[in-house]
Amino acid sequence: MNKIIERIYKDRDLTLDELKAVFAFSEEEREKLFAKARQVGTENFGKNIYLRGLIEISSFCKNDCFYCGIRKSNSKAERYRLEEDVILECCKTGRKLGFMTFVLQGGEDEYYTDDVIERIIMNIKKECPDCAVTLSLGERSKESYQRLFEAGADRYLLRHETADNNHYRRLHPPFMSLENRKQCLYNLKEIGYQTGCGIMVGSPFQTVECIYEDIKFMKNLQPHMIGIGPFITHKDTPFKDFKSGSVDDTLVLLSVLRLIFPKVLLPATTALGTMDPMGREKGILAGANVLMPNLSPVRVRKKYSLYDNKICMGEEAAECSACLRGRIERIGYKVTDCRGDYGVVYE
Ligand code: SAH
Question: How many whole angstroms from 29 Cα to the centroid of ligand 1?
Fold first, then answer.
């Protein structure tokens, strides 16, 4: 086997030069890398793929990330927020379809105070006591994270976006800070959440050095989940003239992460499926083991526009779920209807 692949596999580590070499792999070498990552994935998860039902609860955001379509300064963005009973309905529908994790994601919308989110979590847990609740609501205080954890939230997704401070500065307005974002992640872990970080691949100004910093940060944080997907241009953002990230680079990084973090929960993201009609399948075949179908009401889907041409805009939850299950089976994997907690082995 390729020496570099062997070394990442054995040592769960790599140097910057090795990372550069991996991104420059020939197609043949890439296939070997994917195969090794697949092997490690299968050793840890069998052929099981976990589903997370994504509910996009709000497109209001007080932040202004340069890459994101729902940034505060995008006056063309259509804003909405879901009522509490609508969120609960989405979960009930999802539960009937076999989903056992609900991800509540949104812009940083101050309407969703701790009181409101706490109530939503408790109602979901009352209706679906066997399900996990994941939050993805951006940066909040440690006290807030603590309260929401005590209300029953199990997991939290907060991509760090980049671990390189200069790069972070070029992706975000001056009032946001990488230091705070990292601190949020350490707080979440300390409180007891299954915690997910992550980045966009091919975001403007990203270099291999940045990705190397990301890997170092992840090795330090030891996240339970890592969300990565290609950056995709949004036409109404300051990055409208930048190219989107590449599918191949995303697949390579998925495989590298699978080798370094054998047990981490690794989604094949919607962004990957947007850049390539077979992107999510390719992600699974490169070592990913999670899919996050959209459970948001169809009427709001277009308004949660983080990037252009997002897929699955018209399908109801049931259609999305059936479509994905079929896709997974066709590549020899199967959807496992379980919570899919970190470190729990399911049959
Ligand atoms: N407000 C929450 C949720 C953000 S949306 C938070 O701060 O965590 C979830 C993720 O979508 C972001 O973390 C970002 O990595 C990704 N994203 C945003 N804009 C994107 C774009 N143009 N292309 C690809 N991914 C994007």
Answer: 31
Burial class (CB in 10 A: 0-12, 13-18, 19+), 293: buried
Q: How far away, in angstroms, is 298 Cα from ligand 1 center?
A: 20
Kindly report, residue by residue over 229-269, the tens digit of the pLDDT.
999 999 999 999 999 999 999 999 999 999 999 999 999 99
* Residue 243 main-chain phi, psi, to 5 deg: -75, 150
Sign of CA dihedral 170, 171, 176, 180: negative
Q: Report helix angle 208-221 to 247-260, nearest 10.
A: 30
CA–CA dist 16, 95 (Å, integer): 44
Q: Is the pTM of this model over 0.90?
A: yes
Ligand 1 atom nearest residue 68's Cα = 19
In ligand 1, the atom with minimum distance to the C-alpha of 158 is 8
Query: 160 alpha carbon to ligand 1 midpoint, in Å?
Result: 10
